[in-house]
Amino acid sequence: MKIHEKYILRCIELAKNGLGTTAPNPMVGCVITVDGKIIGEGFTSPYGGPHAEVNAIHSVSDKEQLKKATLYVSLEPCSHHGKTPPCADLIIRHGIPRVVIGIRDPHKKVDGKGIEKLLAAGIEVTCPVREQECRVHHRRFLTYQEKDRPYVILKWAESGDGFIAPDPDMRGSKPQPYWITTRHSRQLVHQWRTEEQAILVGTTTCVKDNPKLTPRTWVGNSPLRVVIDRKLKIPK
Questions:
Q1: 146 an active-site residue?
Q2: From CA 24, how far away is CA 167, in angstroms rounded?
Q3: What is the pLDDT along the chain (236 residues), one digit of tens a residue?
Q4: Choosing from 41, 53, 76, 196, which is the catalytic residue?
């Protein structure tokens, strides 16, 4: 495996630590090396906090080493002011000579502008590296930016003979939820719920099962929103 690929894969591994907390920002990972040795790492903080590049740079104890370092990042560094200043400016300010990027950021305020800013400052830029793996990792962010829609996970439980719920007559005598899944699969579903920004359920599911869709009011710094498919009066 080539050295650039190795460290971009490490960026993806680090970035997963931000799953469920960074939205609407992408969960990015960053690695900083000198002479083949990692001297700093970071991933995106919960929404509103520092980006991966900032956290990685701040983790380096001897900032003088940055002047001969290579910075690896899974997504193009931002070049605009949002909740935080541009990461590209911070990279330039610290004199980092080489930047290796997994994929270009399609966000309309970035979309190559971060790369252009780095190149204009005389920084050597390599992009893309491990593009397919980075696209898979950033699929939530990329789906919204490129297709203008949310990334959707469809989940249901089904019996071997194709049923998802008991006969209505049976439910009349046993109105409580009728589990056909295991404890492990239900734990997995709760994990998925913390990783996504919204949950969509049908009205019948809500009325019949009264599912506990909000085990936590907040996921990281982002509210977990519960969406129902049509108007329904729910007691406060």
A1: no
A2: 41
A3: 699 999 999 999 999 999 988 988 999 999 999 999 999 999 999 998 999 999 999 999 999 999 999 999 999 999 988 888 999 999 999 999 999 999 999 999 999 999 999 999 999 999 999 999 999 999 999 999 999 998 888 888 888 888 887 776 766 666 666 778 888 988 888 888 878 878 888 887 777 777 766 544 333 444 444 444 444 444 44
A4: 53
